């Protein structure tokens, strides 16, 4: 069985002090219509499946991992981050 995977490393200045849940909240809050980003249905109930997008903080660096269906979502996050950073609209 082959599993597709995409990783996005998020380095910030100052470094990230919080857990992966904060990273999840940041991105999922800006993409509420994409259930796989936050693993909840439109009604707010949890989706009981293996999370296709996972958020972690390792040594003050954010890591977002897209697995199978989550790969395309993480690739879209990368494109959106580049767009926002180029226009200094991230904050």
Strand order within the widest beta sheet: 1-3-2
Global mean pLDDT: 84
Strand content: 15-25%
The beta-strand count equals 3
Question: What's the helical proportion of residues?
Answer: 25-40%
Order of helices and strands: EHHEEH
**Number of DSSP helical runs:** 3
User: By helix and strand content, what is the structural category?
Assistant: alpha+beta
Number of domains: 1
N-to-C CA distance: 40 Å
Estimated radius of gyration: 13 Å
The backbone outline, from C-alpha atoms, is: globular
Oligomeric state, counting identical vs distinct chains: single chain
Residue ranges: pLDDT <50 for 5 or more in a row?
A: none
Largest sheet: 3 strands, antiparallel
Q: Topology of this protein?
A:
Elements: E1 5-10, H1 20-29, H2 35-38, E2 53-58, E3 61-67, H3 70-86
Antiparallel strand pairs: 1-3, 2-3
What does this structure look like?
Helices cover 34% and strands 21% of the residues. The protein has 3 helices and 3 strands. The relative contact order is 0.22.
């Amino acid at each position: 069985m082959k599993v597709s995977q995409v990783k996005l490393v998020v380095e910030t200045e100052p470094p990230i002090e919080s857990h992966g849940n904060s990273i999840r909240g940041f991105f999922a809050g800006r993409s509420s219509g994409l259930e796989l980003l936050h693993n909840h249905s439109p009604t707010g109930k949890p989706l009981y499946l293996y999370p296709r997008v996972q958020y972690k903080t390792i040594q003050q660096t954010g890591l977002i991992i897209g697995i199978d269906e989550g790969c395309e979502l993480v690739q879209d996050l990368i494109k959106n981050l580049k767009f926002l950073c180029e226009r200094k609209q991230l904050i």
